[in-house]
Amino acid sequence: MKNPALTVALSTALKKHQAVQPMPGLSTQKKLDTFVRQMVDSVARVKYVQAIVKRHQRLGTVPEKLDPKNARFDPLWAAVHFMKEGNTDEAFWLVFLFVLCGKHATKGYGLVRMVYGAFKDKFTWTWEKFSEAPELFAHWLHQHLPEIKAARSEFPFGNHRKYESLDELDVVLKSYAEWIGPQRSHEAFIAAANEKSKAAGDPKKLFDYLYRDMKAVYRFGRTGKFDYLTMLGKLQLANIEPPSAYLVHATGPVRGARLLFGGSTDYKGFTNKQLDQMSIDLEKALGVGMQVIEDSLCNWQKSPDEYELFSG
């Protein structure tokens, strides 16, 4: 059993919360145990990302993890490195590329490496190089696209982005640069967002503003926005935290919430807005963070009676 202390604490808290909010989806001990195991996994994934920051502090620079031409390249490690070096623009950029491309179950960061490492060319699409002239990236991409597609099995999109197209990478990246603004400065962008949102340093209020504002990024829906912003928070690139699971336009997490609070993934007795509030109340009772609630609901509904390990 992973993390037995957390398992017991979550099981106890869930049973206590059932007296306040009925959860017919946990009608059997097996369903409750499976849901708890998914939450424990979700907590571990959050802590894994946070551990990257601590490991970088201990180990310092690891050149192979910074080089997209190297099989050991890790965009999240590189993001932490650049953040520590004071290059916050490159750190934000790498997080966006990580979320855009994903991590494939067998090919790992192959697609991130291809994009950031400019395929077979001997340069890197750094934020500075890309943001100065996104149209040059578009020209480069479409010039290389036939050869890239011929080798696409080596760099597929990750699970969350599996329906995306290589043909539109340039459009997505250009829209991201335009979202950040003409200064092309992420620090200036976050400062302006904090002012516009009147968040006054409130991490949840700022997260919500950025989440809604990110609709400007092409092909980034609920999951993409949620994953990008929560990753910025976990890596301490921005002081933001999700105030809810954003279930209004969700699919998998909503099915999980319907199952949990209604007893069936097809239960229609609650609106998505009501389910979102119930999820917020559940998080307050458990104290695990909204990302854990969102992630575990999504994974649990896929197999509520039999535990399955999911990588994302």
Describe the structure.
InterPro entries: AGPT-Pplase3. This is Alpha-glutamyl/putrescinyl thymine pyrophosphorylase clade 3 domain-containing protein. It comes from Ralstonia mojiangensis. Residues 31-312 form the Alpha-glutamyl/putrescinyl thymine pyrophosphorylase clade domain. It holds the Pfam family aGPT-Pplase3. Helix 2 (29-59) crosses helix 4. The two termini are 20 Å apart. The chain has 15 helices and no strands. The model has no long low-confidence stretch (mean pLDDT 95). The longest helix has 31 residues, at 29-59. It has a domain at 64-223. With 312 residues, it is mainly α.
Q: What features would you highlight for this structure?
A:
312 residues; mainly alpha; 15 helices; 61% helix; globular
What's this, in brief?
The chain has 15 helices and no strands. With 312 residues, the protein is mainly α.
